[in-house]
Amino acid sequence: MQNEIEIDISQEEQGTGLPLRLKSGVNAIVFDIPIVQSGPQIFEAMWVPEQGSDTITANNTGLGVSFVSQGGLILLVTQNEVATAPLQETLESSGLKVELRKPQEIPRSSIGFSAFDAVILADIPRWSIDDLQEQNLYTFVHDVGGGLIITGGPNSFGAGGWIGSKLEQAMPLKCEPPQTRQLPQGALALIMHSCEMPEGNYWGQRMASAAIESLSELDYIGIIEYDWNGGYGTLNNSGWTLPMQLAGDKVAAMDAINSLVFGDMQDFESPMQLALDGLKDLSAAQRHVIIITDGDPAGPSQGLLEAYRSSEVTVSTVMVGGHGSAMDQQKMQGIATVTGGRFYMVNDPNLLPSIFIKEAQLNSRSLMQEGNTWDVKIQQSISGPVSEIQSVPQVNGYIVTGSKGGLAQTPWVVPVVDGDDPLLAWWHFGLGKSVAFTSDLGDRWATQWPNWSAFQEFWEATARWAMRGASPPNMMVMSKIEGGRGIVDIEAVDDEASFLNFMQSKAVVINPAGEAQPLTLQQTGPGRYHAEFDAEEAGAWLVNIAFQDAKGEMTGRIPTAIAVPYAQEYASTSANGALLHNLANSTGGRILSLSDVEFIDLFDGDNLEVPQSPQPIWDLLAILAASILIIDVAIRRLWIDKKSMQSMLAPVGKVSSVSVDALRKVHKSVERNVTTAEETKSEAVSLKEEEPSPTKKKIENRDDNLSQLLKNKRKRSGEGDDV
pLDDT digits over 408-462, tens only? Predict the structure, then answer.
C-alpha cells in the first residue's frame, strides 16, 4: 500500500500481490513504484502466509516512510472554490504550488502535513474538522515550523466556533472580541439526558465542554439533568446542575460538567419547562436549547412547544445510540422543527463535539460587521510580511476579534467608536508563523481587493513569509530503529565541504498520536550530530529539526521519519539466551535442555548455597563491655578484711573437742541400753549369743561411720587424729 492506497506490485500475476517463498534471513525484493505526488510517501507491505504456516501474525507487516520534496507547496482548505479562486491564481502566478482540499480531506497525521510548507484556512468553521485534525494542524505550526494563514468570512474566527479552541492558541489574535465592544448576548441551556452508548458519560461531558468552550464570556449558560434523588428546585426530579448565569471564565460551568450523573429522564416536559423559565426573561439576542438524548423519554406537550415558539426560544435535538425507535426519532425531529431548531441523528460519537460547537454559536451574526464601508488604518510595526505596503483598499465587512498584544503584531486595523478592530495580524508561534486576515478573499466583503494593484504582492509576500524554510542541501540525515529506540544522525557541511560545528537547533519528535516532545541533538564529532528517543508505539514517528542563526532566526529545517510497523515484543522470534543465562545465574538456577527434562530432578538442591543470615555482634559486645566495666569498678573500689573472713569461716572448718566427747557419751549410753535388753531374752535365744545382734551390729557400724567422719573433719581442719 502507498499512502493507504493498494498498489499492484505483480504486473504479470493475477491480483495485486506477488507470490513469494521466503528463506531464512533477509529477503530483498526489488520493484518499481511510481510517485504521482510530492510529500511523504508511506509504504506498507503485508506478508500473507499460507494457512497454518505462521504462528505469529502480528509481525507480518512492514512500514516505511520516504519524503519526496516539491518545494513551495501550500495547502488551501476551502468549502467554496469559487471564492478562493483569486487567491489560488495569484499564488500560482507567483511560482508557488497550491493544492486544494476540503476540510474533511485535511491530513489526520503529522506525516501528512509535512508535505506542505504552509496551510491556508479560507473561511473554515471549527465544526468542519475533528479534534485529531486540529491537533495535527497545531503541531504542524508549533513543532514542525509550518505556516498558518486564516482568512475571514461568515464561518471564521469567533463566528466559526474557534473561541477557546486549540488552534486559537496559534492565531495572532483573539477570536473573542473585547468586552468594550458591547456585543449582543446569547443564552444557551443544555438538557443532558443519559447517553446509552459505549463511553456515554465521557462523550456527554465532551459535548458539553465543546459547547461551553466556544461561548463568549458575555453569553449565558445553564445545564439541566435528571437526578433520581430529586431535591430542592427540581421538577419531577429534573433540575439545574448549573443555574443560568454568565459564562465568565467558564470555571463554574466546567465544574458542573464534571459532576454530571446523566440520569435517565422519564419525560421532556419537566426539563424543557425549566429551560423555558430560565431563558424567556433574559435580555439576550438569541436564546437556544440543546437536548442530547437517546429519544426514549416521553415528549413535551403541544402547549409547551407553542410557548417556546411564542417566546422565540429555539431547540435543537441530538439523538445518539440507545434504544430509540423510529417514532422516537420522529418525536425529536418534531421538537426541533416546531421551535425553529435543527435535528441531528448521530451514529459516530466523534461527530458530537463539532455538532455542539456549531449549535452553541449564538451570536455568530453579531460578530460579523457588514452593511457599511470602513477605511483601513496602517499602524507602525516591526518588520513583517507587509512592511512595504503603505495603503490598502476599503472593506465592506469583517469578523470582530480582539488583539493578543505582546509579540503579536497588528499592522492593519479598522477604526471604530469602541477602538480599533484587527484586520491583519501576524506573529511567530513556536517554530512556525501564523497570519490572520479578518475580512474575506473578495467575494462578499473585500470586493475591491482582487482589482487592487498590490493584491498579488500582498498575498505572495504573506505566503512566502509564513512558509517554513527549505531543507539545507548540504546536510544528510539518517534515521533508524534499534531496540525500541529511534536513532537520528546528521552530517552537516557548508558549501565548501567544511564541517559545520556548534550549530544551533530546535528539534522535536512527534509520535503517531500527534503529540510532540523536544529532542536534543548532541555533537559527537566534526559536523556530526546525534539524538535518540523512545519509539515503542507502532506507527510513523516524525522528527523535525530546525536550524537557527546567531539571531535565533530559522535558517532551514530537516524532516525525517521513522516507521515502527509493530510492537517491539514481536520484533524478535528467537530465544534470548543471554537473558536466560543471566536469570539462572542471578537466582542460583540451571540451564536446562528440552531434550533432558524427563531425566532432570527439577528440585535438586545440591548446587544451592546454604542460606546465611549474618547477625550484628554489637549487642553481644555491648553486654561484655558493661560486665567488664562493673568488675573493674569493683576491683578498684571494694576492700576485703582477711581477719573478718577467717572468723566467719571458723565454725565451718573447726569442731570443738567438747562437742565430740558429748556426742560419744550419747552413743555409749544407747549401746548399754541395747545390751541389757538382750540379756533378758529367752534361753533359746542366748544359745546363739555368738552371733551378734543385727541391731548391735548396726549401731557399731554407725559408730565406726561417725568416727570416720570425725577423722575426715580433723584432717580438713588440720588437727590430724588428735581427739
Answer: 999 999 999 888 999 999 999 988 999 999 999 999 999 999 999 999 999 999 9
Q: Which residue, among 701, 700, 722, 699, has the nearest Cα to 710 in the 3D structure?
A: 722
SS3 assignment, position 366: coil
Angle at CA of residue 65, ends 60 and 67, nearest 5°: 165
Q: What is the pLDDT of residues 86-118, one digit of tens each?
A: 999 999 999 999 999 999 999 888 888 888 999
What was the pLDDT predicted at 597? 58
Phi, psi of 295 (to 5 degrees): 95, -5
Q: Are residues 332 and 216 in the same domain?
A: yes
Judged against a pLDDT cut of 90, whether residue 44 lies above it is answered with: no
- Let me know whether 188 and 177 are in one domain: no
Beta bridge partners of 506: 546
**Are the CB atoms for 141 and 434 separated by under 8 Å?**
yes
Query: Which of the listed ranges 25-39, 42-56, 513-527, 681-695 does the model predict with the highest average pLDDT?
Result: 513-527
CA angle centred on 633, ends 630 and 637, rounded to 5° = 140
Q: Are 214 and 185 in contact (CB under 8 A)?
A: no
Distance CA 202, CA 207 (A): 9
- Rounded to 5 degrees, φ, ψ at 508 are -135, 155
Are 146 and 75 in contact by the 8 Å Cβ rule? The answer is no
Q: Domain check: are 309 and 327 in the same one?
A: yes
What torsion, rounded to 10 degrees, do the Cα atoms 659, 665, 670, 675 define?
160
Q: State residue 243's pLDDT score.
A: 94
Q: Do residues 83 and 123 lie in contact, with contact meaning Cβ atoms separated by under 8 Å?
A: yes
Which value, to the nearest 10 degrees, does the dihedral of the CA atoms of residues 239, 241, 247, 249 take? Answer: 170
Give the range of the structural domain holding residue 493, as residue numbers without chain letter.
475-556
How many Å apart are CA 144 and CA 139, to the nearest integer?
7
